[in-house]
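Figure caption, in words: inputs first, then the predicted bound structure.
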Amino acid sequence: MKILKKFFLVSQCYLMLLGLFVVFPVQAQDARFTVVLDAGHGGHDPGAMSANSREKDINLAIVLDLGAIIEQKFKDVKVVYTRKTDKYLTLQERADVVNDHHADLFICIHTNASLSSAAYGAETFTLGLAKTRANLDVAMRENSVILLEEDYRTKYKGFDPKSVDSYIMFEFMQDKYIDRSVEFSSIIQKQFVSYCQRSDRGVRQAGFWVLHRSACPSVLVEVGFISNPAEERYLTSDQGQKEMATAIFNAFVDYKRTHDKKSGRQMASVSKIEQTAKAEDHNQRRPLQPVEVAHPNPEIDTVSKKNKIEAPVLTPANATQTPVFKVQLFATLKNIKAKSTSLKGVNNTEYFVEDGMNKYTVGNDTDYKKIEKIRKEVATKFPKAFIIAFVGDKKITVREALKLIK
Ligand SMILES: [Zn+2]
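Bound structure (zinc ion present):
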């Protein structure tokens, strides 16, 4: 009798398991193509900032436009958003959305920033080892949101977004989605040029945590520079945001067509959106590309130097090789007093954007001693203030600057 009971129990378990296998694939696997759209930053994390706009708003506007077009044109695509409102999510929570939905494609939208207001153009990243310092800088800036989390050291297993050493892990990493990610990135970049007349900064690789944790082809788009006045105007305009979203949509149409063919999936006949005559007019009125010179990272300074430079946010005392010293008072993610020139009673403060942070400074002199004097004067109000140095728009170490003077 006991044996019979055991037999029934075991067979019941098998039946239950069998039932699970029959039901599970139908319930958990959505037959539709799933794309996850991620508007970078949000809530108390504004991302990169200028005096007038915040990265998180630009990213969200483009994501909502993009999602709306995909939903309207593709009935066989499920669009999932990591956020549809001004909400903060950690990088891990964003990757969890991708994996929980068994996504087929992951698109992160970000806006770039540079110390030099002359830098401009759109670029698309896939996961990989950064081959240039410029690419590593972008990943470091985007990953630095990790520092906003309380116990980031345990949560991110010792990954320090600000340490170059942390990025070595990406050298030995196998990414089985890399080919498809690169393929999609290239189509996006082509569309930015043909549909929006944007400047093409190319497909790049760097160690982005959010891409690293997502199990599907994934790209991170830097739609342009918030620190470039012309590009900022474009990216904060309705037309600019719609155009960027449409360009990514067109790339999605191409990518999905190839993907459907390979997977034998029935494909819906969706066409790319052509530029309308009206939009072309608009593009003709707008200068084709803003100028780019004197980018702080020489390896990505691709445009001829004879172009005109727009006035940089940071105005050094002169543009020669003579270094300029300033006192950095503090850095913050919040755009608290961007327009204020008086902080805690310290007058004539300035700020610049670096690593997505607003960095507030006072003083601007080629004489190190004068700046050291200012640092001492502000020490009671800003005890952590320290001296920084620039040559032209390029930030250098104080040690390098002092060597240049000798
Ligand atoms: Zn960002």
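The first strand starts at residue 33 and ends at 39.
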